Amino acid sequence: MALTSTLTERAFAQRRQRDWDRLDALVRGVQSKGLRRQLPEDVAQLSPLYRDVCADLSRAVAARYSAPLVDYLQGLTAHAHTVLYGQGRGRSAGARGRWLRTAIDAFPRAVRRHKVAMGLAFVLFFLPFFAGLIAELANPDFALRIVPESQLRPLLEAYKQGFASGRDAGMDAAMAGFYVNNNVGIALRCFATGLVFGVGSAFYLVENGLVTGAIMGYVAAHGAGGNIFTFVVGHGSLELGAIVLAGGAGLALGWSIVAPGDKTRIASLQAAAKSVVVVVFGAAVMLLMAAGVEGFWSSSGAPDAVKRSVGAVMFLLVLSYMLFGGRGSSEASQLERADEVDPWT
């Protein structure tokens, strides 16, 4: 029995030694030169090799292989774990910093990955937006047909009064909380309903675009257009942009079900979800930022010219980030290596 066990252990070690040596070489390379100096294809091998060696260790322990082999595998897995998951509390801040930089780079890359879906979402929101705005300016009763008068009247009074004197700090905080709840709810509907073959996302994009345009037209038609524009311009690129991105994510998700290609619908949905989830989380962060700007800056007593200038700068920053952010990032690129070509690109 002992001879049979020895032969089995030897065969096991001979079959797996190549992967063990490869993992050991990768770990030593990272420890000596750092992760950033490794080739992307080498870094991509670390995680699967580590998982395989963990499975080998479990098998060796269960089969009661010799102590030297078990000790060797334990050491190898420990060193690999240190490389993959950090080296204690002393490096936790650096690891968090790297994770944050990777997330910041991955978000615009994921948006561009689904650029066709995002472009369609933009059209589905802003075409009804301008249609509602123009229709209300041409026909003052248009907004009343799609938005309750009880909602329009208080808005009109608030914008007629303007924000030259600002708002109470407690009111600013309360309104920021309201904006978070309201805007996140809209974005989630635009995204989640995309599972119904993208139809739900398209519907909510059109509906919200039309209503938003009609409200702005209603306020403008009653003489407070400058005030509402000044209020919206500071946070609009974040808030409306996030709603469009969430709707685009829903469209991309729905399309992965409608046209799965050579995959099953479940596999296609899973593949699309990898980058779509990144877009949704990024849009959620944009909405939180928009709520803070809307609650504390847009309603402040700052001069209109300053607010409009800040809004223009914010728009350029958001646009530049989406177009150029994350280009050349090796960390964000590694997140996408396992993904296949997306049907929306």
Question: Which structural traits does this protein have?
Answer:
single chain; about 0% strand; mainly alpha; elongated; about 350 residues
Tell me briefly what this model is.
The chain has helices spanning 2-33, 40-62, 67-85, 92-113, 115-138, 142-146, 149-161, 169-192, 199-233, 236-258, 265-298, 304-324, 330-336.
What average pLDDT do the residues reach? Answer: 81
**Whole-angstrom Rg:** 27 Å
User: H/E element string?
Assistant: HHHHHHHHHHHHH
How many domains, as an integer?
2
> Considering DSSP H and I runs of 4 or more, what fraction of the residues is helical?
over 70%
* Dominant shape: elongated
Tally of individual helices: 13
Count of DSSP strands: 0
Distance between the termini: 60 Å
Low-confidence stretches: 87-91, 169-179, 337-345
**Largest pleated sheet:** none
Structural class: mainly alpha
Beta-strand fraction estimate:
under 5%
